[in-house]
Amino acid sequence: MSKAVHAARRLILGRALRSEHLGDQLLSKRLALPIFASDPLSSVAYATQEILLVLSLGGLAFLYLTPYLGAAVVVLLAVVVLSYRQVVFAYPSGGGSYEVANRNLGPSAGLTVAAALLVDYVMTVAVSVAAGVDNLISALPALNEHRVALAVGFVVLLTAMNLRGVRESGKTFAVPTYGFIAGVLVLIVTGLFRVVLGDAPVAESAAYSITPEHSGITGLALVFFALRAFSSGCTALTGVEAISNGVPAFRRPKSANAAKTLVAMGATAIVMFSGITALAIVSKVRIAERTCDLVGFTGNCDTDPQRTVIAQIAAAVFGGTTSVGFFYIQAATVLILILAANTAYNGFPLLASILARDRYLPRQLNTRGDRLAFSNGIVLLALAAGILIVIFDASVTHLIQLYILGVFTSFTLSQAGMVRHWNRLLRAEPDRAERHRIRLRRTVNGIGCALTGLVLIIVTATKFTQGAYLVVIAMPILFVMMKAIRRHYDRVAVALVLDEDSFDLPSRVHAIVLISQLHKPAARALAYARATRPSTLEAVTVQSDDTAGLQKEWDKHSMPVPLKVLASPYREVTRPIINYVKTIRRDNPREVITIYIPEYVVGHWWEHLLHNQSALRLKGRLLYTPGVMVTSVPWLLDSAEHVKYPTARPAPGDIRRGPLPAKTPAANNRP
Question: Which keywords accompany this UniProt record (predicted)?
Fold first, then answer.
């Protein structure tokens, strides 16, 4: 790594942390709330809007359903929070819904939950960032044409912040999260106080009417229509499971602190969602999927954006779009929606690390980076969300259709798993009082399973043709992929098990040093090969125009190793060597063949294009040949000798032992 790249890395990510500092990254409840709960708290900024957008398809005729649908969302949110509170205590090791389903319903159910959550975490980032950009545009409409660039930029910023570590990102996100909560609570109290005084706020769109896209809806069609609006409002529940996934990140007592944070998140989200929905009804907010369906809209409906519901409420309560209160709410909403993606930035890498630990995902996802965060998972999440944002033009309306299907899949299977968990405990529990408590807990999870299962059916039915079919396709693909990864790791594990032949010594070692010309790197490789004292040692070269000169040099220096020249009528290098090695293996199957390849070590990226190309091709072929060991013998060029490496900090005890001898790359060239 060059000095400039290293400096930039440290500037962005900060100083690397030692493994023993992992305990310092554990979270208090105060920091855990903005880290794990920013998604469900921020969703109140658009959950009411999603209900109104669907109802507005029928014009103004069906807006009377808003309070009933809002109440249903509140009940569902309360039940899910109580259900996950029990998960936190029952499974404190993390993994949340995945672990519950995996242990109680089997690996296939666990993988189904994992696939659903992985997809939904990606959607959380895409939707949250797109919604944040929407609210930014509500305050600054001129930015509308830069929507996608802004969204991708925010994803990059969030990625960099999370790569700095969990605790540091929590400190960064705490102020905007608490600022948003305070702002919305002030907005609700002020608005309801004005209602009590008889001065109810009036939204800028209150006088608009809406051209209905569907009219004459009655009977079952009306029920389906209402259920579709309800399913859109259920976006308020996204991210609730993140705390149960992240219990290991809390300070002790982990489960108790996680449970308290979960309840605080649920209570706050319910109050804010209820208040915003009430103010939207009182102030008569009008919003439509297509701006041109708003009759009375001022401006160009083809290009000018509508203000979001929360923006209209803030303007109505605080006295217009130029008021301090309006800009505060918009700024806080933009920040919380952008930072809401942080829930996914913590949930996705944690879940991916658990899946990697269980060998369902590549093991690199279980590796912590310089700042003790799961860096590979963070980068993977950012790439997937960024691609979605570009494909769907950062449109909340389009992205939201792919949302929450995965959430309710995991909710339902998790609650079903908890019911089975309590049944198992009930069979083994002799104490009467404890059996009664277990039955109560089972009832809570049973109700949660029934409600979330019903919502899952509703969400699937109402959103399938709107884009949710993409999620229905993606989840099975992820499921099959994780199964295949597990089978691969299982096969490798079986193949690597020690047996009675594992420690047998080879009968002979046949060493081959590949030579292209006689120079210092070649001499060093020969010396190293001789030092290993193989049974047979020979130098091998492929016939070329320089072969005669090489043979003359070989004889001139009286080299103690015979030089074998391989014929190459078609001027190939790789094929003659491979064929020669295979011939030795066929004639002496119990011999081990060791190939020594002199290689240049360069200091600049462009020098890689000028050296070692033949060596790379040879190694690529030889590594697939059974019974062949490939050894690279490095030789540092001048450019590599001057590469500056960061000075390592002394390890404990170094000062007592005295200074160590200097280590430089040039030492690799000494025989």
Answer: Membrane, Transmembrane, Transmembrane helix
